[in-house]
Amino acid sequence: MIGRLRARFLLSVLQHAAGTLRATLVAIRERWQAYERKEARGLALLSAWLSPEQRSQFEKYNRFDVIGSESGKRYRICYGTSTNVYEMDGRGRVVLGWCFRPIGSLVAGDVMLAQKIALETDERATLTVARPFPSSLPPRAIRPPTR
Predict the structure, then answer these.
(1) Rounded to whole angstroms, how far apart are CA atoms 81 and 99?
(2) 52, pLDDT greater than 90
(3) Is the pLDDT at 22 greater than 80, yes or no?
(4) Helix crossing, 52-61 with 2-49: angle to 10°?
(5) pLDDT tens digits, residue range 4-19?
(6) Short-list 56, 40, 38, 50, CA closest to 117
(7) Residue 65 to residue 50: CA distance in whole angstroms
(8) 139 φ, ψ to 5°?
(9) What are the pLDDT digits (tens) for 64-123?
(10) Are 42 and 80 in contact (CB under 8 A)?
(11) Where are the domains of the chain?
(12) Can you tell me the distance from the alpha carbon of 13 to that of 136, in angstroms, rounded to the nearest whole number?
């Protein structure tokens, strides 16, 4: 009798745990799908604002170059939301990294578009708020796989 009660209790506990786990997995999947939709919209908006050359660079290397509005320096914006902007020299080598981003929880495409517009329209003000970081590594260009 006690053994049967214990087995029923354990079964109900396991069923409850399984239901909770299932609900959690569904919620995680829904959040991930919502994020993927936001990411796709951000990349589509970014792509619409890129020049044909920049779009080609982005499609091929997951990064693109912009020219600063005042200095004429070349900056490379790599896929990402932070520590993803690099000042380049005339030979295509990294001089310095710059870290700046808009406030808020934004997907990479939206951040990169804001970085592009900032450097191309008001480079001096942008670099005033940006944090420099040394970088002896080539600019990263990691992008999540597309389906």
Answers:
(1) 9
(2) yes
(3) yes
(4) 150
(5) 878 888 888 888 888 8
(6) 50
(7) 10
(8) -55, 135
(9) 999 999 999 999 999 999 999 999 999 989 999 999 999 999 999 999 999 999 999 999
(10) no
(11) 1-137
(12) 55
Place of tokens 């354990």: 10
Alpha-carbon distance of 37 to 19, in angstroms, equals: 27
Find the angle CA(131)-CA(106)-CA(42) to the nearest 5 degrees.
Answer: 115
Cα separation of 66 and 77, whole Å? 8
Q: What is the mean pLDDT of residues 124-135?
A: 94
Q: Which residues pair with 130 in a beta bridge?
A: none
Q: Which of 38, 55, 47 is nearest to 107 (CA)?
A: 38
- Token code pair at residue 77: 């914006």
Strand order in the sheet with 131-133: 63-67, 74-78, 85-88, 94-99, 131-133
Global pTM reads 0.78
